[in-house]
Fold this sequence. Notes:
By secondary structure, the protein is an alpha+beta fold. It has helices spanning 12-21, 44-54, 67-79, 185-193, 203-208, 218-228; strands at 2-6, 33-40, 92-100, 110-122, 125-135, 143-152, 177-181, 237-243, 251-259, 264-269, 275-283.
Amino acid sequence: MATETLDAPPSLGALYGRALLTARSGGHALPDRTLELAGATIDADAVADYAHVCGFRVGGDVPPTYPHMLAFPLQMRLMTDREFPLPAPGMVHLRNVITQRRSLEVGEPLRLAVHAERLVAHPKGAQVDLVSTIDTGDGSGTWRSRSTYFVRGASADDAVDAAPPEPAPAVGDRPHAVWTVPGDIGRRYASVSGDVNPIHINSLAAKAFGMPGTIAHGMWSKARVLAALSGRYDPASTVDAVFRSPLRTPSTAYLYTAATKDGWDAALRSKKGKDHLLLTVRPA
């Protein structure tokens, strides 16, 4: 697989403009290259803004979900290339698995790398994995993420290899918290992440892409659950989250959690018990 080295982070605003232009184009196979960006750093003010939106304590460790903010522009750069076989507008995040060896630190130099793999059929369309890695100089892969995205109505060949089993948290039948999900959380999260996918910020656009209305970003719900568990898991952890059904905004969500022998299980559900998010935290 070839490597394309970038001189600076891609502009998300320009990429979303490109996404609209390339929505109907695309090749039949995934790009055979990795995008790489060296010399990236984590900004303290950006982390603080992110923490406010997601519920983390400001001034603590860099949240394990925050590095996704650094990798996402590279993901979008890859997904908006004309050769990419799936259109970026309307993509839905189905699953995200993050493994980090330690917390990343504000200001330390980072090397980011992103590539795509596993373009496979889905019962209602097609899905693809975007794999992101962040190294801190020793090549050990300090932080790694696999994001699975889905496009309704798209097509792809069946997978040769199956995905790992999805998380199956055991959390009981009594919620530990009741959250009011704000109607503007899509816009607020978009402002700190750059992810301005219209399904999160515009009701008419969301319905055009098959959603019931605007929905919360999957990575916001994952971060919000991790924030509720802050201080209860080791920074060296694997956090596996599957986004089972859209979390509408505004709405009410019920958080269920349970300690396990070596980590935590969590679920975010509707009042009627419908799963929005299933999550497990385990040692890395």
